[in-house]
Write a structure and sequence with these properties.
Length: about 350
């Protein structure tokens, strides 16, 4: 049974009430307060009722609706950048649809293209207002690890951190990239370029590793000049194409680490009079909707983006239900989709 301390409620009303305030007022740990207001196991019903009473008296906004109705609102959070990016948009849509099917709302927070972490105030708001977070970010966010350590449910998608650091959902980037390189090698390509992804992502590192391994396994030409940065975006692909065209001997094929950079690459090649695939073959990665609509249709590696969103929600809900996710990693298979942008090299 928590010991309620004396607090000046008028002073506290002037600021946002946090779980730390509730814990201090009740004389318990922040973890215990979090478990009580988030309806998580590990707290007796007597302690939970007492803590909810304290939280209500202090005006804790995060769960005011729950205090009034007696039921907890089902809300999960989603943090992502660049919501207009096809890869991100497909996953966000899947998360929202999957949550809705389970009767759960999704609170989405985004900072656009900026790579500044959410402020402490935003993270606190999300923690107070949601049962857990799905996180899709291109940078490491230490507060996520801190939340997970305090048993607040967090699931990463395509984590920028160390493998196994947090529960994570991803596709088989290595296997998919090896399939792409094997496809080009079997066509007879020997001088294959690689447009790298943003190396802050584990997926980009895995695709680069697969490219390097394929060069050795298939006996392909190894030339450091054939590896150029693409940063997982359209303009990065255009810049990469210009670099490759400036080489004394251009490649006969290019594997781009994602579709968006492949689109930029194809545009520059075509502007310079190159025919795809007659003069140069191009392979992407992701299989976003536009991959089948560009001309020629893009051969690419299909990431199961909808499945990734569904798996992230399922993993998060398991944590919320009290299942210890530990360092759970869900890796979904990737599939090579052959279209019109690849062919045997010209002789």
């Amino acid at each position: 049974m928590p010991r309620v301390q004396r607090f000046n409620l008028q002073d506290m009303a002037r600021t946002t009430i946090t779980l730390a305030d509730i814990a201090a007022a009740a004389g318990v740990s922040v973890m215990t307060a979090s478990r009580a207001v988030n309806n998580q196991p590990g707290v007796s019903s007597q302690t939970r009722d007492a803590l909810l009473k304290v939280a209500s008296e202090l005006g804790y906004e995060g769960h005011r609706a729950a205090f009034k109705s007696g039921t907890r609102p089902r809300v999960i959070g989603l943090i992502a950048t660049r919501l207009n990016h096809p890869f991100v948009a497909d996953i966000v849509g899947s998360v929202v649809e999957t949550a809705a099917a389970a009767g759960i709302e999704v609170l989405v927070y985004s900072r656009g293209p900026h790579e500044r972490p959410p402020s402490a105030e935003v993270l606190q708001l999300l923690r107070q207002s949601t049962e857990g977070l799905v996180v899709l970010l291109p940078y490491r966010l230490d507060p996520m690890a801190e939340m997970a350590a305090e048993r607040f449910p967090v699931v990463m998608i395509d984590s920028p951190g160390e493998p196994g650091e947090l529960p994570c959902v991803a596709s088989d980037s290595y296997g998919g990239a090896r399939a792409a390189m094997k496809h080009l090698a079997e066509f007879g390509h020997r001088r294959i370029a690689f447009v790298a992804g943003a190396e802050k992502f584990e997926s980009a590192l895995e695709r680069r590793r697969a490219y390097d391994d394929a060069i050795a396994v298939h006996g392909l030409e190894r030339d450091p000049a054939l590896v150029v940065p693409g940063e997982y975006d359209f303009e990065g692909g255009r810049t990469a194409a210009r670099q490759l065209l400036a080489l004394p001997q251009r490649p006969s094929a290019v594997f781009a680490a994602n579709d968006l950079s492949a689109f930029g690459l194809m545009g520059v090649f075509q502007e310079h009079g190159l025919r795809i695939p007659e003069d140069v073959s191009v392979v992407g990665f992701d299989d976003v909707a536009a991959a089948a609509q560009v001309h020629p249709a893009l051969t690419t590696v299909r990431q199961p983006l909808a499945d990734m969103g569904r798996a992230a929600v399922s993993t998060l809900l398991a944590q919320i239900a009290g299942v210890d996710a530990g360092t759970t990693r869900v890796t979904l298979p990737a599939e090579l989709i052959v279209r019109r942008s690849t062919a045997a090299p010209a002789r």
